[in-house]
Amino acid sequence: MQSLRALLQFTTILPLGKPADYECFAKRSWLYPAAGYVTGGIAALPGLIAWYLGFENSAVIAAISLALAVFISGANHFDGLLDFGDGLMAHGSREKRIRAMTDRTTGAGALALGIMVVLISYSALSSMTVLQIAFAVFIAEIFGKLAMAFLSALGKPFHDGIQKFIYDRSKKRFCLYAALLTLPLFLLPGKICVGAGFLSALAAAAVLLLLARKLFGGVNGDVTGAGNELTRMAVLLVAAVILTSA
After folding, report:
1. Alpha-carbon distance 227 to 76, whole Å?
2. Tell me, what's the pLDDT at 75?
3. Sign of the dihedral defined by the CA atoms of residues 3, 70, 99, 211, in that order
């Protein structure tokens, strides 16, 4: 329980009492998808409530669901996405890219990537029915956390920080444990979407690992946080294609 509480205190703004020992989670970073069940369940509520009440405005529910997913995390992972955007779009040497990613300013790269991810995610969600929005945002949150588990276990850090703290306490087998936590999703209707979402999470994590190693020489907390946002976007986009083509 201490590990789960530490995980949720790190990934959400839920009031969970006295801060837990973060090392309890760091030694069990494979638990990341468990947080996705919580954040995804909360973000799915607007769609479920709208479906129950007969409210069919997908555009409104898409905006609320996406906003809730970002809000419940305290925009922590979104902040990582913005920092990653600055590093990704910076010009020059590896050192300049790292400096752009880790400084306290928000540049054009951050704004550009943030806007792109939000627009694509919102467009994907708004193309669905309200019930499909609830389903899609639920699985997208879980697979976003799966990508974070992969990045935490496999992403060799390029400097001291939160990524190094978790990486040093993780094992490669944690990737398997994290993947097993997503298996209950295959009991839901829409197994094609779930399978496609799982593959999207694997692909997003792999691309980010390769990109981070090439551009920065490794992974940091910003890259891992960006993994959640980019994977959510990818899963929502794939789900939209599958669900609206049926």
Report:
1. 12
2. 93
3. positive
In 10 A of CB 45, how many CB atoms?
15
**pLDDT beyond 80 at 246:** no
pLDDT in tens, 96-128: 999 999 988 888 999 999 999 999 999 999 999
Average pLDDT over residues 34-47: 97
CA atoms within 13 A on the CB side of 52: 7
Question: What range defines the domain where residue 79 resides?
Answer: 2-245
How confident is residue 245, by pLDDT bands cut at 50, 70 and 90?
confident
Give the chain's mean pLDDT. 95
Tally of structural domains, the chain? 1
CB of 106 closer than 8 Å to CB of 86: yes
Burial category of 203 from C-beta neighbours within 10 Å (exposed 0-12, middle 13-18, buried 19 and up): middle
The CA-atom distances, in angstroms, between 215 and each of 5, 94, 109, 143 are 34, 6, 15, 25
User: Based on the number of CB atoms within 10 Å of its own CB, is 115 exposed (0-12), middle (13-18) or buried (19 or more)?
Assistant: exposed
35: nearest Cα among 144, 194, 131: 144
